[in-house]
Every structure is written in C-alpha cells, then in structure tokens.
Amino acid sequence: RPAGGLWSFPVSRARTGMGTTRRYTLFIQSVPFERVAQRLHPPRLVAGWYVACASSALRRGGVQRFELGGAPLVLFRGRDSGVVHALPAHCQHQGVDLARGTVVGNRLRCPLHHWEYSNRCEHVPGAAIPPASFARYQADERFGMIFVHLGGTPAYPIRGFSVDDGALYFRAGKPVEIDCPWYVPIANAFDMTHLRTVHRRKLTSAIDISYPDSMTFRIRYSTAVTGNGWSDRVMRALSGNTIHADIACFGGTILTVESSVRHWRSFLMVSLRPTATGVSIAPMFGVPRRRSGIHVLHARLSAALFTAFLTRDVAPLSGIRFPPAFHDETDDTVNACYRYLCRLPEYDLEEMS
C-alpha cells in the first residue's frame, strides 16, 4: 500500500501486437471499513424522535415501560409539573426495574434504595452529589402524542406539517408490528413500482425529489386511481381521480404524507420504531379543523382510507430482507431514498450504555 493511500492489484496481462506482454494494474482508493459499511446498509439505529404513546395514556404520577431498538426504558409524568421524562429502565445503582418505582414530585424514585431520577440521576440518599450521569433520552409532546428522542440533546425539533398544529385535528391509529428492518417500510413508501402494482395508482406527473436538509428526503407527485377495491372507488369519487402527494422522511424515524384531493386535505404521520423482532409502525391521522365539527367524521374517513392503503403492504413486507448493496434497476426514486437512508448517522446503544 503506497503512502498515497492507494491499494494496487495486478488485474491481467495482455499480449500486444509487438509480441510483448503488458501488465495492467488496478488502483483503488482506500476507504475506512465503517464508511463502506455505512454506504451499503442503513444504520441499525438512528438518533432521532420516536412516537411512544398517546399523551392521554400517561397520567400525572404514571409510569410506563417502553422499548426502543431492543433497549428497555421507562416514561413517567411528574405529579407537579406534568412534564414527561424518559430514561433507561434500570436503576444505575443495582439495576432495579424503575417501572416499579414511584413518582415523587417530579422525579421517579427507585423502589429499593430510593435513588431519584428525572431523565438522569438527580438524588442519592445520604450523598451530597449524585453520581455522574447524562441524559440518553429526551421526551416531548406534540399532536397529542408523547415522543422520545434517542441520543441526548435533540439536534432538531419534532417535525410537523405545512400547516399550524392548532389548525389540525388528530386521530391516533393502531400500531402495526412487521418482521423486517426499520428502513424497509420507508424505502417502500418511495417505491414507485409498487405504487402501481400493489396500490393500483398511476403516476400522472413527474416525480420531484428534494433534500431540504441533510436529515430529510422528500418527494412530490400526482396519481390517478386504477384499482376497483372499495377504498379505490371511494378515493376516485372523492378526488375526481387526481391525487397530489407530498411525502417526506425525517431522520429515518418519522414519515409524513400530505395528500390533496380537490378541496380536501389529509395528513398522515408514521413513526417507525425498531424493535427486537422488526419494526413497530405507529400511524397518526390529521385533518383540518372545521367549525361545523365535520372534521371528526373527516378524520374517521381519512383513517379508514389510509389504513386500507397501508394494509396492502403488511403481508408483502413481512419477512423481507434487502440484499447487500441494494439497488433497483427500474426505480431511481427508491434508489435515491435508500442512499439517503445509508447516509444517516448511526447511534450505538452499547457504546452509549
């Protein structure tokens, strides 16, 4: 290996017309193994925001267990402040299960030795200063949901939609568990071929691909319905067979869809949480609020149509494993999405623990 950082490999010898033999050498720029692996595969886990549960599911003084990337953690809501905190599920002293602890004021108390936590250790009985610790998780609330951020201080806030939160009415959907890597459903959302074969939609416009920032991948396009299922017929009637879609992925953990059909707009947010057996997909449906209150019915219809649309993917995606160095020869959009996913920074749970 020369000092210039190039590996040299003899490739072949070719006989020239002059009766001599010429040796050809291939030079390859050396690249650290970690960078090569990152380019070929998306990371196992990404630092970012994940949906944990509905805000209403965690009352003041309540404690709830949660799993993220195979690691257990607990959520609790302060009795006085009402603020939600997230932290590793086991006390850093003797590993006691903090889900069995008690919320005292705005801290979670370990049931065995009464160490107290916010999102880090704050108090140890008899000790003037608690042991050094750092916050591995942050919790926040938006859209009536509790979000947990993996990776200490968030680099960006919880992403929203193109309209103010107060202008939307949200309805949480039922989470779905799928046996596949977390990034497969994301790539599937940008798979234009399967949009035609599985969802029976035909593109009626060019696909606009953009990267608003290093953590975001976005596409916009228009389609017409070609299927004849009940949801296809309803969508065709509502839309006049012209559907505009704006889909964005934020940090590999949140997927948003904004669709426009005539004067109706619908909003979908999907949280993708890696689990020990695959990925948990938690949908949330939003529609514009109306003074008449019709937005409640609109949200039910939107949830039914989106759910019918998403359900078609569950069985085909179950058990899927992308081949090494995945590349689709027929779909540039899914390839662009996959390259974006491979560039996301990896979060190492073992290193941080």
The total count of helices amounts to: 7
- Main beta sheet, described? 9 strands, antiparallel
- Supply the helix-strand structural class: alpha+beta
Order of H and E elements? EEHEEEEEEEEEEEEHHEEEHEEEEHHH
Work out the number of β strands: 21
DSSP strand content: 35-45%
How much helical structure, as a percent, in the residues? 10-25%
Stretches with pLDDT under 50, minimum 5 residues: 1-38
Mean pLDDT: 85
Distance between the termini: 37 Å
Alpha carbon gyration radius: 25 Å
Form type: globular
Task: Please give a structural write-up.
The protein has 353 residues and is of the alpha+beta class. It is built from seven helices and 21 strands. The protein is 20% helix and 36% strand. Strands 13, 14, 15, 16, 17, 18, 19, 20 and 21 form a nine-stranded antiparallel beta sheet that branches. Strands 7-8-9-10 form a four-stranded antiparallel beta sheet, with no helix packed on it. A hairpin with a 6-residue loop joins β8 (107-109) and β9 (116-117). The longest helix has 23 residues, at 295-317. The chain is globular and about 70 Å long.
